[in-house]
Amino acid sequence: MTDKFDKTPADGPPATTAVDKGAYTPPEQIKAIPVRHWGRWISGVVVVALLGTLAYSFSQGDVTWGTVGDLIFDDRIVTGMGRTLLISVLSMLIGLFLGILFAVMRLSKNPVTGAVSWLYIWFFRGTPVYVQLLLWFNLALIFPVLNLGFYKDEMVDVMTPFMVALLGLGLNEGAYMAEIVRAGIQSVDEGQTEASHALGMSSGKTMRRIVLPQAMRVIVPPTGNEFINLLKTSSLVSAVQYTELLRAAQNIGSTSFAIMETLLVASVWYLALTSVFSVGQYYVERYYARGSLRQLPPTPWQRVKANLLSRNSPRGV
Hints:
By secondary structure, the protein is mostly helical. The chain contains 13 helices and 2 strands.
């Protein structure tokens, strides 16, 4: 029989003493060894070698790089760049307005508005933008005088190079934006519209307050791509005598015989503009992604900080 004053349990191991606790040694810390991805290193070396070869080839070519540097901030080039931005932004605004209008018309149950929207999209998406610019530029051959009743003027005075560029790019962009907006509207569940109608909201208010805000998550990414594409497509308006970035570079090249140098200057500016708007597009997409993602994607600065912290942290910790 076990004494009730005995400190050792009857069934089981003896109680752990202070000496036993001091004799305990924890296991060694696991040393993590990172896996070496040799394929990444090899592909990186190959890419760097190809870029070095390309840079060396251009350095050996007959290009006066000093002229490129001198023309980067030339007044004529900067003015042309400003006109490129102006015509691109205004054309995009026209395209957005027309895109929303014709997308709603095409989704309407009215067969007349649906047919008109389909014909507009069919024509302006089916013909090249260069052909459309030439049609607007030569419109005076068909209508020598523009007579609207309250306004009458010569067509050649109305269809200036700026107006031709604005109409050609804006109407063409509207056809593409109509399909983008239509896809965004159709991505919203129909139950949202039915619920708003049940609450007594009109169709217009439902579209403005319920459907379009939710459709923006689908509309914004391709819209950013369309604007960047429009920024580059604006170089075609040089064919209708509008002096934007490319035409300004060509005018300088034709007088100074530095044709390749001026084209490289135009390329540098196009790359700079598209890079800036690409970063802006990323932040706009990130803004409209709120509510649809559990965690927003990191910004470029946050990625840089994370990479620096991961490099500075000790191995295996």
